[in-house]
Amino acid sequence: MGESEPFFSESILLAACKLSGSVYISGRDDLSYVRTDIGNTAIFAFRGSLDPHLFTYTATKYGECQIKNIGCFECLKDGNNHPASVHQGALTQFLYISNNSSVQEEACLDYERGKTVVFTGHSMGAAIALLVTLWMLDKQPRPGRPKSVFCITFGFPLIGDEILARAVRRKRWADQFCHVVLGSDIFSRILLVPSMYVCEPLEALLPYWKRSMQRVRDFMDSTEKPTEETLPLNVDGIDKFVSTVFQDCAAVVNYSSAAIVSPNNLLMAAVKHLVKLSPYRPFGHYVFCSRSGGIWIDNHFAVLPILYYALQTSDVNLEDFILGHVGYGHVLPNALQDIVKLNELSDIPLSEAGSIYQDKKMATQLEALGLGIQNCRARLSLRAAGQVMKQQRATVSKLEDDIKVKIKKAINELEKYRSHCVISGIGYYDAFKIKQRRELDFKANLHRLELAGCWDKIKQMIWVSQDSVDKFIYKNELPDDFQCREEWIRLGTHYRLLVEPLDIANYYRLGYNEDSTGHYLVNGRPRRYKILQKWLEDNEENNQLIPQTTGTDQPTKFTRDSCFWAYVEEISCLMHNNNLRDDDKSNVMVKSKCREFEERVGRLIDSNGLCMEELLTGESTFKIVVKWLWKHMTPQQKAGSPFGTFIDRHPELIQ
C-alpha cells in the first residue's frame, strides 16, 4: 500500500474491519481508540458514540455545521472563502478525541518514523476517523513528502458538504480515503435524510446497533452470520423507516444527477434555493459490497446514485436493511474475493444486446447490487457520471494542445517586448503606460488581451459567476484538482507576474482611478489574477514555482508581487494631491499609506523579491515616488526606513 497504489490491500482492509469491531469489546460508551501494527503500518480504530441525540437534536435540518473557529481545517474552504460544513455530531466527537487523547501525537510520531498510518472506524467511529485523517493530512510537516496517511471507513461514507469534498479532491487527498459500504446498510445513507424524519426509529435502532456490535466482535474471523436479538422495530416500523430513507435518497440523487449533466440550468439553481436537500457529498474511493462480491469505484459523481439504487436489490428483506449495518465483519471476507474495479462508466451497457461485450464478473457484481441491466435508470446515472469524467479528460487534453500553446506563444512575445524596453532605457511598465512607440506597444496590447481571453476561458470552465463579481459557483468542466497541477500553477504565475503590471499601467493611463471605479486594487483587479494567485497560495509545496525564463535561479526575474505597481501608483496619486505638511490633518491618511508602502517594499527587499532592472531603468514611476518619500522624511524617519539601506545600495534612486 502506498502512493502508487491508491487502493488498500485485502489484508489491511480486513485488519481495519476487525479492529473497528474490537473497539466495542468493553461495552463502554466513552469515545476512545485502539491501535495495532501490521509490518510498517500502524492502524488506529475509533469507537464513536451512537447516542441518538447526535441525530435527533440538531440545529440544522440535516445536522451539518460549518467548520470555523476551532483552530484547524482552515484550508477547507471554497473560492468564496466559505468554510466547509460537516456533521455536527461527528465534529463534536472529533474535538473530544483531540482534546482528551494522545492519538494525534502518537500518529504523528509514527508518521515521522516512516510508518504508514491508517485511521479507521465503524459507524460514528468512521466519522471520527475521517476528521482525524483530514487533520493529519493538513498538518503534515513535510508537504512535499509522499502521502502515507490513509483512512478506511465502514458504514459511514459521507461526512461533509460539497465544499469539503471539492477541497479534498483539489488537494489531491482523495486517494487517501476508502469507504466500505454494504449495499443493504440503511444507516450508511442516513445523512441524506432530514434528522426530524428519522428521530423515532433512530431512538430504537442506535442502541440496538451498539449492542449488536458488541456481540459481532466474536465473529470477525468467521464468515457465518451471528445470531441477532429481536429487532427493536416491527415490520411496519421498519417499512416506514426504509421508505423515508428511499424517498429522500431519491430526491438527492435526482437533483445531483441533473446538476451534473447541466450545471448551468437555471431551473436547477432555483430548486436548490427553494428546496433544501442534504448537503453531504462524497470523496475518495468507494467499495460497495454484497454477499457475492463488490465493486470498487473512484468516480465521485457515481457514488450517490449507487447509494440509492443499491438499496433496491430484489433479494433483500426489510430486516436486512437494519442488520446490514452490523454485518461488515462477516460479509467483507467473502466480498473481497470478488471485487471488480469500475473504470469507464460511460461504456456500461444499457441493454441485453450491449451486455454481451461486458465482463461477466462485472455484470454479476453489478446485478448483486441492484445495478443490473433491468435497472435502466441506475445504468443511465452511472453512464452520465462516467461521461462527465470522460469529458473532463477531453477538455484538459484540449487545453494542453490548444490554449496552453497560445498562452506560451503570447508570453514569449511579451518577454521580447519587455527586453526591448529595457534595452531602450525605460522599464516596460512605464513604457506601456506612456505608449510612445505605437507599433510595439500596440502589438504588446494585443498579446495582453489575447492572454486575458485565454485565462478567462479557463476560468469560465471552472466557475460560473453569480450576481456579485466576488461570488461564484463551481462547474464540472475541469477536474477539481486542475488548479493543483504544477505546470498550470507555473504558467499562471508566469502570466500573472509578467502581464498584470501591464494591466495596471493601462488602468492608470486611461484614468480609471479618477472616476467612480477608484484605485486598481479596490475595484479594478480582474478576477483571473485573484484566482491564479490563490492557486499558488493554496499549494504551499509549489510556492517556489516562480518562472525563470532565463534558465537561471535568479529570484528577481520578476517582482514577486504582481500588484506592486498598483501600490506605487496609489502613492503617486497621493504625491500629486498632497504636500505632506505636518500641520495638515488631512495628511494623516497619506502618511499612513506611505508607511504601509514602505513596509511592503521592505518585505520585498528582505525576501529579494524586487526586480531591480525594472525599477531602476530610466526615470521610472517607482524612482519618482521614492525620491518624493525620501525628500519628505525627517532624519529620524530616514534612519528607521527600509529605504535607507536600499538607497545606500542603489543611490541612483534619489539622483
Secondary-structure topology with pairs:
Blueprint (H helix, E strand, L loop, with lengths): L9 H13 L9 E7 L2 E7 L5 H4 L7 E3 L18 E3 H13 L2 H10 L3 E7 L1 H15 L10 E6 L7 H9 L6 E6 L16 H18 L18 H27 L4 H9 L10 E6 L2 E5 L5 H7 L8 H6 L4 H8 L3 E3 L10 H4 L4 H9 L7 H48 L4 H7 L3 H25 E3 L6 E3 L11 H24 L10 H5 L2 H12 L25 H14 L9 H20 L5 H5 L4 H11 L3 H6 L2 H7 L6
Parallel strand pairs: 2-5, 5-6, 6-7, 7-8, 9-10
Antiparallel strand pairs: 1-2, 3-4, 8-9, 11-12
Helix pairs in contact: 1-12, 3-5, 8-10, 15-17, 15-18, 16-18, 17-18, 18-20, 18-21, 21-22, 21-24
Q: What's this entry about, in short?
A:
The chain has helices spanning 10-22, 53-56, 88-100, 103-112, 124-138, 162-170, 199-216, 235-261, 266-274, 303-309, 318-323, 328-335, 352-355, 360-368, 376-423, 428-434, 438-462, 486-509, 520-524, 527-538, 564-577, 587-606, 612-616, 621-631, 635-640, 643-649; strands at 32-38, 41-47, 64-66, 85-87, 116-122, 149-154, 177-182, 285-290, 293-297, 339-341, 463-465, 472-474. With 655 residues, the chain is an alpha/beta fold.
